[in-house]
Amino acid sequence: MIDVTSPPRTPAKKTARRVYRPNTKHIPVLATLALLIVMYSVGVYNYDGFGDTQVILNVFVDNAFLLVVAVGMTFVILTGGIDLSVGAVIALTTTVAATLLNAGWPAGVVLPVALLIGTVLGFGMGAVIHFFKVEPFIATLAGMFLARGLSLLINRNSIPITNDFWTQMAQKRFRFDDGVFISLNVVIAVVVVVIAAVVLAWTRFGRNVYAIGGNADSALLMGLPVGRTRIAVYTLSGFCASLGGVLYSFYTSSGYSLHGQGLELDAIAAVVIGGVLLTGGSGYVLGTVLGVLVLGLIQTIITFQGDLNSWWTRIVVGILLFAFIVLQRLVTRKAK
Amino acid sequence: MVLQMTGIRKVFPGVVALDGVDFRLLPGEIHALMGENGAGKSTLIKVLTGVYDIDGGEIELAGERVRFTGPLQAQQAGISTVYQEVNLCPNLSVAENIFIGREPRRFGRIQWSEMRRRADKSLARLDLDIDVSAQLDSYSLAIQQMVAIARATDIGNTRVLILDEPTSSLDASEVEQLFAVMRRLKENGTAILFVSHFLDQVYEIADRMTVLRNGGLIGEYRTAELPQMQLVSKMIGKELEALEQIEEEVREAPRRDRTIIEAKGLGRTGSIAPFDLTIHAGEVVGLAGLLGSGRTELARLLFGADRPDSGDLAVDGQPVKFHSPRDAMTRGIAFSSENRRTEGIIGELTVRENIILALQAARGWTRPIPRRRQDELVDRYVQALQIRPADPERLVRDLSGGNQQKVLLARWLITEPRLLIIDEPTRGIDVGAKAEIQRLVAQLADGGMAVLFVSAELEEVLRLSHKIEVLRDRRLVEELENGDDVDADRIMHTIASGATP
Amino acid sequence: MNLTALLRHRLFWPIAVLVVLLASNLVFSNNFFTITLQDGHLYGSLIDILRRSAPLVLVALGMTLVISTGGIDLSVGSVMAISGALACLLIGDLSNPDSVGPVLLVVGAAIALCLVFGLWNGFLVAVLGIQPIIATLILMVAGRGVAQLITDGQILNVHSAPYRVVGAGYFLAVPVSFLIAAAAVALTVAVTRRTALGLLLESVGGSPTASRLAGIRARRITIMVYVFAAAFAGVAGLIYSSDVSSADSNAAGNLIELNAILAVVIGGTALTGGRFSIAGSVLGAVIITTLDITAVSVGVPVETTLLFKAVVVIILCLAQSATFRAKVFGRFSAKRTVPA
């Protein structure tokens, strides 16, 4: 019998399970949830009409594309990587889609092509990262330049989208009894979130993502398909970015090579505020959802406040980032 | 014959790591792979587990020719491996670490409860009862090692199990437990490839052994037919007198007229209970105890690497408080860590830079050591310690373990410390280098330096020390004056019982 | 020197790229290499490259030191914006913006503020132990907000002759911004290579734990490099805002963190820390600026320089990737793997 008492915090078997002690892994997510509740309460208390259901639904409507992108980013960050190309991929996707639609291509062809763009680019970046051992930061930076440059090359101006299908999708609303509604984008984003959560928690691919983030060398020696998983993760993120781009083109009914500037930062911030460890290996999609909601709610509060300028958003997001990063630090330090 | 490797050749740019090596494994045997560092053991294992591809030769597994493109293929073919450093994912649960990659699934969905149940069962076979849903890094290294073994042996079709230095982080009872598991697997027909630096363990468990030297095959032997001395000479290629020489030297007791360091009730909660310890100039003090008994923790407190939360420390009779290693260094204390690769050398710097590092740190960045002085110092120590290759501009990571250890010693020796703390300087290095380092320690003490020598090998501690401190369960339990009446049995008794007989 | 050794030199590829870039310019404009003296100022495309490289060179210098410790500083662009914003705000408040003394004070104040930001980054990284990429992300996000706060969201225009000298002036016919950058390079080389700082940085970047146990005060050194980086970024911000005579919180230092990191990587310093090359980073910064200018002279739309950059990044990264070289060139592989 091995002496299991040597690390003093070894959980005593069985008995410990009944007492609820928040798992250290859950603390950041719970903190984000608490913050969200506080922010919402403050909003409801201070501003008229903030409590309307539609206000919270609008946070989803306005940030559906970001949510989709952030989900892809979550996978990448869980493996300990980073994807700087997502904002540029959104721009490229909307530009290509708008250009093709205006050239008279049917929506049924344009949609898959648009989705393929990010997927292919993501696959390429993943392959470079895996096969040539180029740092994710640099490889996706090149991807960012490539995507942004391509979209600028295609068209430097904003292109309006007038295609029927696109307009239909953009105007599609799911209405509920009391007049509140969500857009199609929200439905798609929610579906993406659910699929991602299931994949991460219950499939081998999902667990491999966590394993790589925990220790990639070990994962390789344990016989896990590290290369395949890593490439898949960037491909997935590229796909999510493209899907985010499509949602963005629904949302704005335009294609523009300057769309999504700095969006990669928003996505990373959302993921971090959502409690995903930037070094990889720990975090949940649900956390990312909460992170996106926090970002959205800040915008909403600033809009309701009225006399605050837009740059306060950045400062507040910076402060929140700081708070959550320090929290993560404390939690991981305690666990060590 | 479960595994047959013939004429294996593996070339790295500039180095032939394996040259025409044959190796075979029979079902139901424990086969030790022996050789010094750099003999090609690790390379052979990596070839066998699919980490490296081969440049020549053939691998036959159960009569079929195979060629692995990665660890996964090797595992699927029935070759499982437990590596020296625990290669698991610290952020996953124990159960996941055992089953990841082959989780029980239904319709593609991982069945968590089934997985935990199986993990419980598989750990029970190793006599381990822990919460399998807890994160792996909440357990000690020894338990993590057992989890790694559980993972390796749980693969249903395991025909070959490779254990690469599995015992280096285990204490005696854990080693026995591991051996029991190995014997059971052997009875079930699994072929086990075992690598260990502990000769006694090899002789206890292995049926046959294959000896490698410099990437070439020396031979395959039955353990029973090859005496230890012969094995050692086959491994290093020359008759080994070096080790015995030191043994014969009579160690004169130091005068003990000058106290270097004195600890009174020094301790740190959770790492080492308060202890008293006095070290004099010219004295070699050995720290004996099992892994996890608090050896390293004690050493780190004396060096200021960790902060004590009780007790007093005095250097030269003056009370001191160390807030960082730097404070200890200014008092003439040096510490060479047991984790050579992570806490010792800096791989991408050259031998020269590694050697002058501590001295330079002590001088501060504004006062660089003139290049000529650097070369002088480095050349002197490269020669004195016989660091090979004798090229100060080589990157340290390209050196063998023994030579890296010598670089570390050189780093501290040029700071001219009065107390040298060395933690496991001889672990994982070849016999020749071991003897050299032991001789060096003896010389240094004769020259008036105080040495605190930490080692898991009792023989080594006995051979070198004037005074032996025995640790057990993170507590200093006994201080022994080394003499004729003190031998390994005597220390073992203390370690085992914790009381003075 | 034989061919293999030449190919293996870590500055070979960057220099090759720079030469190709410059040569391709010659094809499109015959007088590309001509340097003329007009009104006591040197003029010409090469001078232009040197002048316009200055901010990036400065930022890349700081970034090199940060990266050598295994860190990264994403906040340099924001720091540039803040320093420019503060300088322009203060100069706007001066009673006489054309007198040298007060302007120097303003410049000093702006750099001092940057030092504080550097300390903040260093504190987060070295004292709180936060991963550098995250720690500096905070200031990267919040910093532009702060800059906008300073300028109240406006573009602040300044008219000050002494301030204009910083980014657009000439001294002895040579652009002042180039002189500032050259002085910064000399200072960095002196501070790292004439002292033991370089070795200690590389040691900390190579292994923080081992460095601590070797008695290196890693914390102090780490804070120092972030302060360095912020100070250089601040100077770069001054050069930029002086050159355009205004403070634009959005445009100043936009994407410069990425360009600077790129410059460092092109120069052969690994993002994982350890060995660093100042010459390489300077070369990298010049390559990137040349790229921007080349795009103009080749006549492609300015925006497509991004595409150029992407291609160059990919080529350089692949050329520097040991694995890629091993796979493609086989015997030219630079990194030797030695078995454990």
From TrEMBL, chain A:
Transmembrane stretches, start-end: 27-47, 59-78, 84-102, 109-132, 138-159, 180-202, 231-251, 257-278, 311-331
Keyword Cytoplasm (UniProt): no
Topology within the bilayer: Multi-pass membrane protein
Keywords, ordered alphabetically: Cell membrane, Membrane, Transmembrane, Transmembrane helix
Annotated Pfam families: BPD_transp_2
Localization (cell): Cell membrane
Top-level division of the source organism's lineage: Bacteria
Major location (coarse): membrane
InterPro entries named among the record's database cross-references: ABC_transp_permease
Database matches in NCBIfam families: PRK11618.1
UniProt protein name: Sugar ABC transporter permease YjfF
Organism: Paractinoplanes ovalisporus
Automatic annotation (TrEMBL), chain B:
Pfam families in UniProt: ABC_tran (PF00005)
Keywords: ATP-binding, Nucleotide-binding, Repeat, Transport
An annotated Gene Ontology molecular function: ATP binding
Presence of the UniProt keyword Lyase in the record: no
Domain annotation ABC transporter: ranges: 3-239, 255-498
UniProt-listed InterPro entries: AAA+_ATPase, ABC_carbohydrate_import_ATPase, ABC_transporter-like_ATP-bd, ABC_transporter-like_CS, P-loop_NTPase
PANTHER family xrefs: CARBOHYDRATE TRANSPORT ATP-BINDING PROTEIN MG119-RELATED, GALACTOFURANOSE TRANSPORTER ATP-BINDING PROTEIN YTFR
Name the record gives this protein: Sugar ABC transporter ATP-binding protein
TrEMBL record, chain C:
Organism: Paractinoplanes ovalisporus
Compartments (UniProt record): Cell membrane
Chief location bin: membrane
Pfam families reported in the protein's UniProt record: BPD_transp_2
Protein name: ABC transporter permease
Membrane topology of this protein: Multi-pass membrane protein
PANTHER family per UniProt: ABC TRANSPORTER PERMEASE PROTEIN YPHD-RELATED-RELATED, GALACTOFURANOSE TRANSPORTER PERMEASE PROTEIN YTFT
Chain segments annotated as transmembrane: 12-29, 49-67, 104-126, 133-150, 170-191, 221-240, 252-271, 278-300, 306-326
UniProt-listed CDD domains: TM_PBP1_transp_AraH_like
InterPro entries per record: ABC_transp_permease
Keyword Hydrolase (UniProt): no
Keywords: Cell membrane, Membrane, Transmembrane, Transmembrane helix
Top-rank lineage group of the source organism: Bacteria
